[in-house]
Design brief:
The chain has 454 residues and is an alpha/beta fold. It contains 15 helices and 17 strands. The chain is globular. The structure holds S-adenosylmethionine.
């Protein structure tokens, strides 16, 4: 066995063994994902993220363990000792779930040195100039932040922030419909000497050259995410902008160009479903023509959730992997978005990191999920906690769902996924298989992996 990709050393230190129990029987760990391609044999440890390559003989011996457990002699005779030490193979009675929980507990405890929030998600408005056909915010009431609430937001941040720099994510509705209020709050943060940097989720259709400068200089914007789901015709069909003369594909593209040329990293999110996937190769070519000349732009494909007509399928995931290769081959995808999993994350969603991240709605309401503003409110910035039951429910750690207890991707998922997240896709296992196999495939091709910055 050789290590093809190093894992997360913090986790390896916690779980790896120094000695092998010669009296135990052995089986494959729940957290081992096997993958083979063109006569090469890989195993990935989804806890440590280490990837190892096996010889054909090791692979055959390893695969035998699927059928029946083996004793130490079998491990030794087939040279599988290192697979036991690195926990690809574990003792029969080993409790994989307990080990995973232990890793989370230890890493969370180690991280608890800096008190206060490090990150705030702020909705300056829930209004939007688009009516995306798949949007989970459909039916949200239109509400916009007042100056009085914005003033209290700044005080709230001062009272609750951790030491040092904080991150602010501007969300909506369409956050840029509230750009004056965002500028107001950024000015106040600067006057108060609060160090911050911003990110934003936007459709980018309202960005002018002047606003792009302000976003970069006053808002300290580092990264934005923009949804772009198809070529001009498809995009406009899916976006359903309220005023198509003012807001359309062309205004979004020019907004992206203005922001990217300010040095802001733009991540284009291409939401895919069975209705648009077949037109996306053509769209990739258009992307290259429209934006290929500028730096700071990257793209990724993402399945939709919660919408019956857009339900993903295994076939869709297969097409996504092929398309990702195509996007990468013409240089539209640069960072390898299916590849970004080299470290164990203690939190995979905002709702699972309540002590570090908090959401503030336009009326100052507090919540813990940027996908579910209205359902998750448990208090507000004026009165603190107003719904103790909801707060306690969200703050308590989620029980791991029975189905997730059998899933090798448990360490790469939020415990809220099935338990409390109504946006989960029931095809999550197939989706994660596709992503994992795509990243192992790129690893075999020898392409460099990038760090996760999302
Ligand atoms: C609700 S929008 C609000 C921010 C902004 N107006 C925008 O268009 O990005 C935030 C993000 O949610 C994503 N989104 C909306 N509905 C979704 C769904 N059903 N499944 C997956 N993503 C969705 C959009 O692609 C967008 O990136």
């Amino acid at each position: 066995m050789i290590i093809l990709k190093k894992g997360d050393e913090r986790v390896a230190k916690i779980i790896n063994k120094k000695n092998i129990n010669t009296n135990a029987a052995y089986r494959i760990s729940l957290f081992t994902y096997p993958y083979s391609e063109n006569g090469r044999y890989l195993i990935k440890n989804t806890l440590t993220h280490e990837v190892a390559e096996l010889t054909e003989a090791e692979w055959t011996a390893f695969q035998q363990l699927k059928n029946a457990p083996a004793d130490y002699d079998y491990i030794a005779d087939n040279g599988l000792q290192q697979l036991v030490l690195s926990r690809y193979i574990v003792e029969m009675e080993h409790d994989d779930i307990k080990q995973y929980k232990n890793v989370v507990y230890i890493l969370k405890t180690m991280a608890k040195t800096n008190h206060g929030y490090s990150s705030y998600i702020i909705w300056p408005t829930t209004s939007c100039n688009a009516r995306c056909i798949y949007c989970f915010e459909e039916g949200f009431k239109s509400r916009t932040m007042t100056t009085q609430t914005a003033d209290r937001v700044i005080e709230f941040i001062k009272e609750t922030k951790q030491g040092g720099k904080i991150k602010i994510k501007w969300f909506g509705g369409e956050p840029l419909l509230g750009h004056k209020m965002i500028s107001y709050m950024c000015r106040k943060l600067k006057e108060s000497d609060i160090e911050f940097e911003s990110t934003m989720i936007t459709n980018c259709s309202l960005v002018t050259e002047k606003l792009a400068k302000e976003i970069s200089e006053l808002w300290n914007m580092k990264r934005i995410q923009v949804s772009l789901d198809g070529d001009k015709a498809d995009y406009e069909k899916r976006k359903c902008y309220c005023d198509t003369k003012k807001y359309n594909y062309d205004t979004a593209i020019s907004g992206i160009r203005f922001l990217a040329s300010e040095g802001i990293k733009v991540n284009l999110r291409c939401n895919v479903d069975n209705n648009n996937i077949d037109g996306l190769a053509k769209f990739a070519d258009q992307m290259k023509a429209d934006l290929g000349d500028i730096q700071n732009i990257d793209m990724y494909l993402s399945p939709l959730y919660g919408v019956d007509e857009c339900r993903p399928s295994e076939e869709l995931f297969k097409k996504m992997a092929v398309l990702t290769d195509y996007f990468a081959s013409i240089g539209v995808i640069k960072g390898g978005f299916f590849n970004k999993d080299s470290k164990f994350k203690v939190n995979y969603c905002m709702a699972d990191s309540m002590d570090k991240t908090i959401g503030i709605g336009p009326d100052g309401e507090l919540n813990n999920c940027d996908s579910l503003l209205e359902q998750n409110v448990w208090g507000n910035i004026f009165d603190g906690v107003t719904n103790q039951t909801k707060f306690n429910e969200l703050y308590s750690s989620a029980e791991i769902d029975e189905r997730c207890k059998k899933c090798c991707f448990l360490p790469q998922c939020t415990p809220f996924y099935r338990q409390r997240c109504p946006l989960y896709i029931s095809e999550c296992y197939e989706y994660k298989c596709m992503r994992t196999e795509y990243s192992l495939h790129t690893l075999l091709k020898g392409e460099p992996e990038t760090e996760d910055d999302n």
